[in-house]
Design brief:
With about 290 residues, the chain is an alpha+beta fold. The chain has a domain of about 110 residues: Jelly Rolls. The protein is built from 3 helices and 10 strands. The strands form 3 sheets. A 4-stranded antiparallel sheet has the order 3-10-5-8, with no helix packed on it. Strands 4-9-6-7 form a 4-stranded antiparallel sheet, with no helix packed on it. Strands 1-2 form a two-stranded antiparallel ribbon. It is rod-shaped, with a radius of gyration of 53 Å. The termini are far apart.
């Protein structure tokens, strides 16, 4: 129904003139437009009325303008996903869809723009081992102190993975270190004084051993004094050679306890008499108690 007025209302027996008839037709032509046609929303119920237009091959044809409006409303309601055709949509008209409009599993990799998945888009714990390509976790991806003992496979740290001087005495378990430390030798016949140090650990014994060469043409004897760094502690090993011409090598060996060497250092001195000291060699080995 139109919402515009007639130009003229005739009375009985009035003469219909051409001007009046033309004016009325002009009125219709001028005002037959959406702004001059009555609405299809007299009340809320009528405003919400809609009708399914059907699908291709099973169409439901409208028989009036009201029917056309109802079918349009039905499709609008489907598109926006709202309770009514005029509900606020789950997406804006710029192309952003709401969750309710997307079927589960509908977004494939090809639909995601490269470089658009940011940290905030990933759930905590969502990236599993199988999602990381082999050899792709670099040093820069590991935070300081992030690799704990439980993250290392057994026997996976070898010599090449340890920097020089990184293993201190505190890092070595009690009774677990073996080490050989070699002192110096002398060929000038004077008294030898040499400090020998080991990084041995507690609960160890220290085997100090070596040999001396003497010139036995005039007879030779002496002793090796091994002094620990504990104040006043020393142990002597006496060595001698037979009075025969030529040289004679005499070995020596002594055991010192952990308590004898509080900082794992000994001082080795040689005293000679009756001949000439030619060579001396000594070393110290730290061994755990009970080691073979």
């Amino acid at each position: 129904m139109a919402i515009f007025s007639r130009v003229k209302t005739w009375v009985s027996n009035e003469v219909l003139t051409a001007s009046d008839l033309n004016a009325e037709f002009d009125n219709l032509l001028t005002n037959t437009k959406p702004t001059s046609i009555e609405d299809y929303s007299t009340n809320t119920s009528e405003m919400q009325s809609s009708a399914d237009p059907g699908g291709v091959g099973s169409e439901s044809l409208a028989t009036s303008l009201a029917g056309e409006i109802q079918r349009l409303r039905y499709k609008i309601k489907q598109i926006i996903g709202g309770a009514q055709w005029y509900s606020a949509p789950d997406f804006d008209l710029t192309g952003t869809l709401g969750t309710s409009n997307i079927a589960d599993g509908a977004i494939t990799s090809a639909k995601i723009l490269d470089g658009t998945i940011a940290t905030g888009d990933l759930a905590d714990g969502a990236v599993t081992t199988v999602k990381i390509s082999d050899s792709n976790v670099t040093e820069a991806k590991i935070g300081p102190g992030a690799v704990t003992a439980s993250k290392l496979a057994n026997l996976s740290v070898d010599t090449g993975n340890i920097i020089a001087n990184a293993v201190t005495a505190a890092k070595v378990a009690n009774g677990s270190a073996y080490g050989t430390y070699t002192g110096t030798r002398s060929t000038d016949g004077t008294i030898l004084s040499s400090s020998i140090q080991t990084n041995g650990v507690r609960d160890s014994v220290y085997l100090v051993s070596g040999w001396v060469d003497g010139d036995t043409s005039a007879g030779w004897y002496g002793y090796i004094r091994i002094a620990g760094n504990t104040s006043g502690l020393y142990k002597d090993v006496y060595v001698s050679t037979q009075a025969v011409s030529g040289f004679r090598t005499t070995p020596f060996c002594i055991v010192m306890n952990d308590s004898d060497l509080s900082t794992k250092t000994i001082t080795l001195s040689i005293t000679t008499s009756g001949g000439t000291l030619v060579n001396v060699f000594a070393n110290m080995i730290a061994m755990p108690r009970g080691a073979p």
